[in-house]
Design a protein that fits this description.
Blueprint: H1 5-14, E1 19-20, H2 43-57, E2 62-67, H3 74-84, E3 87-93, H4 111-131, E4 135-138, E5 143-144, H5 152-168, E6 175-179, E7 189-190, H6 195-205, E8 209-214, H7 224-234, E9 237-242, H8 259-273, H9 278-285, E10 288-291, H10 300-318, H11 323-331, H12 335-347, H13 351-360, H14 367-373, H15 376-383
Parallel strand pairs: 1-2, 2-3, 4-6, 6-8, 8-9, 9-10
Antiparallel strand pairs: 5-7
Helix pairs in contact: 1-13, 2-3, 4-5, 7-8, 8-9, 8-10, 11-12
Bound molecules: alpha-D-psicofuranose (PSV) and manganese (II) ion (2 copies).
Length: 391
């Protein structure tokens, strides 16, 4: 049995994605940051763009902030966002850009720097109270470039201790989502390099610490859907940073190079949502889908709309896997039959269901076309003069 057409349309309409403030500005590579016309100049203009994307798609009701990139009067920003029709979503403390973090943040040998990184993160918990945010999204950039540069176990103890102080500052209705990354900015070792490192930290922290899977943070060829299934089984999958990658942390448009991988990841989610164990299903229902892409040469708003559509397509296709037949094929050793069932869901053109879902939500059938034909790109380009390059 697969989802009926009506169910499919309703499920697509109910599948929400968080966009991120830093996805609307000019980022780039270490070689050059290019600006595109109409780029937001302030956090309010980033929120305007997030609200526009929500009006066009109907499925992006929250926008993530990165602090201090988005430093402002947070109570006022919350009101402003809500007036525009969106809410403030997850908050990410930025503990990697100050000169003080030359030799790390939570794992810095200097206790005063570790305390500063903890204080910055705890400050973000206060911001969450003001904005109504529920997830503290933590990325720790610490690592070393050379053998001998750091003592792994000593750093680990500092890391656990610092994270615990931040975790303990959370309110009972808040959670921490803890990201891992194989390499970059460090190249010999990263203190939270993979899902296992993150999971171990989360297990020690407490029930409201969960792993964040950024699709660009693995070695090539790693089976991300298997990691996702494992974390779902442990009830420790907190969310995703969604982006597309060819090599590593490319931060390209979601699904632009690897739509099959995206589909297989979504298939683990929708499979868990239907799990007879209510704990597994509830864990899957709480997963945060956040975009974490950076526009290097592309137009930002169109790129965001493309990524949202890619997520919707992958999600919808995953609901077309005939789970009963797949179970039979698995249990009878029908290898080719099982793979064919998964593949035939992936091969289905689900765009007509997306159009119906958008109709149900009261928006345009083709958000990207509607945006391009609206006159807004020209208006924003004329109004927003002097956008800064970079965050
Ligand atoms: C680090 O590469 C990362 O994926 C983290 O999620 C940061 O918050 C984000 O990128 C900044 O773009
Ligand atoms: Mn990320
Ligand atoms: Mn990244």
């Amino acid at each position: 049995m697969t989802a009926s057409p009506n169910e499919l349309v309703e499920r697509i309409a109910g599948f929400t994605i968080e966009t991120q403030s830093w996805g609307y500005v000019s980022t780039g590579t270490r070689f050059k940051v290019f600006n595109t016309p109409g780029t937001p100049r302030t956090v309010h203009e980033k929120v305007d763009d997030a609200a526009l994307v929500h009006r066009l798609t109907g499925v992006t009701p929250t926008v993530a902030l990165h602090i201090p990139w988005d430093r402002t009067d947070y109570a006022e920003l919350r009101r402003y966002a809500e007036e525009q029709g969106v809410r403030i979503g997850s908050i990410s403390p930025n503990i990697f850009q100050d000169d003080d973090y030359h030799h790390g943040s939570f794992t810095n040998p200097d206790p005063a720097i570790r305390a500063k990184a903890v204080a910055t993160s705890v400050e973000c918990v206060g911001i969450m109270r003001t904005t109504g945010s529920k997830q503290l999204s933590m990325w720790v950039a610490d690592g070393t470039n050379y053998p001998g540069q750091g003592d792994f176990r000593r750093r680990r103890a500092w890391l656990q201790d610092s994270l615990q102080q931040v975790y303990d500052a959370l309110d009972p209705d808040m959670s921490m989502i803890l990201e891992y990354k194989l390499f970059e900015p460090a190249f010999y070792h990263t203190d939270i390099s993979d899902w296992g490192q993150s999971l171990l930290l989360c297990q020690e922290l407490g029930d409201r610490a969960n792993v964040l899977v950024d699709l660009g943070h693995h070695a090539l060829g790693v089976n991300i859907e298997h990691i996702v299934a494992t974390l779902l089984g442990q009830r420790r999958l907190g969310g995703f940073d969604l982006n597309g990658k060819r090599y590593a942390d490319d931060d390209l448009m979601v699904g632009s190079t690897n739509p099959y991988e995206l589909f297989l990841i979504m298939a683990e989610i929708t499979h868990a949502l239907a799990d007879p164990d209510p704990g597994i299903a509830a864990g899957a229902a709480d997963v945060l889908f956040k975009i974490d892409q950076c526009a290097m040469v592309e137009e930002k708003l169109p790129a965001m709309l493309r990524s949202i559509e890619a997520c919707q397509i992958a999600y919808a296709k995953s609901l077309l896997i005939d789970r009963d037949e797949l179970r039979k094929a698995q249990d009878t050793g029908d290898v080719v039959g099982a793979n064919t069932l998964v593949d035939s869901a992936f091969q289905t053109d689900v765009r007509p269901f997306l159009w119906q879902a958008r109709e149900l939500l009261g928006g345009p059938a083709d958000p990207l076309r509607a945006y391009l034909d609206s006159g807004l790109p020209e208006r924003l380009a004329a109004e927003r003069i002097g956008a800064p390059a970079g965050w």
